[in-house]
Design a protein that fits this description.
The complex is a heterodimer. Chain A is an alpha/beta fold. Chain A contains 14 helices and eleven strands. The chains are: A alpha/beta, B mainly beta.
């Protein structure tokens, strides 16, 4: 048995609060401990997702959070994996539990983000691909726009389809107390927002946010001992790297791998494939998915990478209403990054929080009736990504 | 060679060693692993990244000057430094072009005056020399740009 129980979850609301990231993390951790009914002194392992934007305390986030909660002798770990940092921290905690070294672990991530678009580090660094691509005018939204335009050219998706993703996610997140943007944006609102990287407008591209998320996980034995044997379980955590040769141009590169010697492979598709294999289930078993909508169009790519429909059919699902709450394959019931904005080390954990609430039937107005199995997916810089399966 | 190319040819490149003018025109400079044949751009000089190849030997090669347009976008807001923007900002297009021989996709700016309305996936694109604003004394440097092959514009 390779499963662990999710005893408790907690989130600090996303926003642009401008306070120290440790505050958000500790607030989320205390909520998760209370939700689990576990005493802080009973936690044997603290696994933090690092933040690169908050100085040294962010690099050693696991210890920073442990100190702020009150040193009590637990072992600590800090993981950094861009958007997948939370999942790698979760994987470290699961390994500690499954090896029998600890019963209960706290997994935690939080961030305070600067204003505006993300920019490269300062200085003249022509050997750094991140410097080079900005020097010639290739920004983060450029990559999202290239993927979006590719969908338009190959599958016939339209800018209205991308706007529909925003409108759908805005409706989902409207009543989510943890979301930053809680407004029912319309197609007209999206069309009126400034063009950033054609075909993507400002409202097609996610913001950066402050936020924090935490999970209390345990062995199944421990969960049963405290009367929580029926808690949602983590059935798979995939944090695979890409397989050479990369098929799709990725931030911050100027070129893909050359597929002369070995065939090109899709990284995004590889992430859930490993999760399905590990959990011993398939896409047909999924009731709900939380995917990384860095752009509206990217949500459509993820639906296909998760094998929830054939290539090129995601916009059709969207138009039919299938991806709404109440549809046959609801996507991003939390409201997704469209309503949250990205708080990098917290985001993968926030996805698991949402699935936990959904599987417990505690999602209120955004509840998906009878949800039993959920999957997450995200991808970030430098070959990092993850996919987590939660089931009950 | 049109006027833009003549003007840019005498300028310092935005980064040394990324591209060079050959007999047929501008080409990006890549590396090719002498063992497995895999290409790299920008150049790689250390260890081959093919997991089945333990080579550390590369030759510098000009990459294909033409390719097939994979995708494209117009950049409509001012990027942060180190990009040096015109004031007021002038939008420009970025193309992702698939090179057949190298089996890789390479990004680059599109020549001035060509944007998403002129482009479609599958078009043949060719590499030309262009210019980029710079903070140095000359105020301008040369760079590589993609241009639709004549007769293949939308």
């Amino acid at each position: 048995m390779s499963e662990v129980a999710i005893l408790g979850v907690g989130m600090h609301p996303w926003g642009k609060w401008g306070r120290n990231f440790v505050e958000y993390g500790v607030a989320a951790a205390r909520d998760a401990l209370a939700d689990a009914g576990v005493a802080w002194r009973d936690v044997g392992f603290v696994s933090g997702g690092a933040t690169m934007r908050c100085g040294y305390p962010g690099y050693v986030a696991g210890a920073t959070f442990a100190q702020a909660l009150g040193w009590q002798g637990a072992e600590v770990n800090t993981s950094y994996a861009a958007c997948a940092s939370g999942s790698q921290a979760l994987a470290a905690a699961r390994a500690k539990i499954l090896s029998g070294q600890v019963d209960v672990a706290l997994v935690i991530g939080a961030d305070t983000t600067p204003k505006g678009f993300l920019a490269p580090a300062k200085g003249e660094r022509p050997d750094d691909p991140d410097w080079l691509r900005f020097r010639v005018g290739i920004t983060n939204p450029t990559y999202f726009a290239l993927y979006a335009r590719r969908r338009m050219e190959i599958y016939g998706d339209t800018q209205d389809d991308f706007a529909r993703v925003k409108v759908k996610n805005a409706e989902h997140g409207f009543t989510n107390p943890k979301a930053r943007y809680r407004k029912k944006f319309t197609m007209e609102d999206v069309a009126a927002s400034a063009m950033v990287a054609d075909p993507l407008r400002l409202m097609d591209v996610c913001a950066t946010s402050d936020g924090g998320a935490a999970l209390i996980i345990s062995s199944l034995d421990y969960a049963r001992r405290i009367g929580k044997g029926d808690a949602p379980r983590i059935a798979a955590i995939s944090t695979v790297t890409p397989t050479f040769a990369s098929a799709v141009i990725e931030m911050p590169d100027l070129a893909t791998d050359s597929a002369v010697a070995v065939p090109a492979k899709s990284f995004r598709a590889a992430l859930p494939a490993k999760a399905y294999a590990e959990a011993g289930i398939g896409p047909e078993d999924i009731d709900v998915a939380e995917v990384y909508d860095l752009s509206t169009a990217l949500e459509l790519d993820w639906i296909e990478d998760l094998q929830l429909c054939a290539r090129g059919e995601a916009a059709g699902l969207l138009r039919d209403g299938a991806t709404r709450i109440g549809g046959r394959m609801p996507i991003n019931p939390s409201g997704g990054l469209a309503c949250f904005g990205e708080a990098v080390p917290a985001q993968a954990l926030a996805q698991v929080c949402e699935l936990t609430w959904q599987l417990r039937g505690q999602s209120g107005d955004r509840q998906i009736e009878g949800a039993k199995v959920g999957i997450t997916a995200n991808q970030g810089l430098f070959g990092h990504g993850s996919s987590v399966i939660v089931k009950r | 060679m049109d006027k833009q190319n003549v003007d840019a040819a005498g300028l310092a490149p935005v980064v040394d060693g990324l591209f060079a003018m050959g007999e047929d025109g501008l080409a990006l400079l890549g590396s090719r692993c002498t063992a497995c044949g895999t290409y790299y751009f920008p150049k790689l000089a250390t260890f081959c990244r093919n997991p089945d190849c333990d080579s550390d030997s590369f030759e510098q090669v000009p990459l294909s000057r033409t390719g097939t347009l994979w995708s494209f976008t117009d950049s409509c807001y001012t990027p942060p430094a180190p990009f040096v923007a015109a004031d007021p900002f002038i939008p420009y297009a970025i193309a992702a072009v698939e090179l057949d021989r190298e089996k890789m996709i390479v990004l680059g700016q599109v020549v001035d005056g060509v944007g998403v309305k002129d482009l479609r996936a599958g078009m043949t694109m060719e590499l030309v020399i262009g210019t980029l604003l710079d903070t140095g004394e000359a105020g301008i440097k040369s760079t590589w740009q993609w241009r639709p092959v004549a007769g293949d514009a939308r």
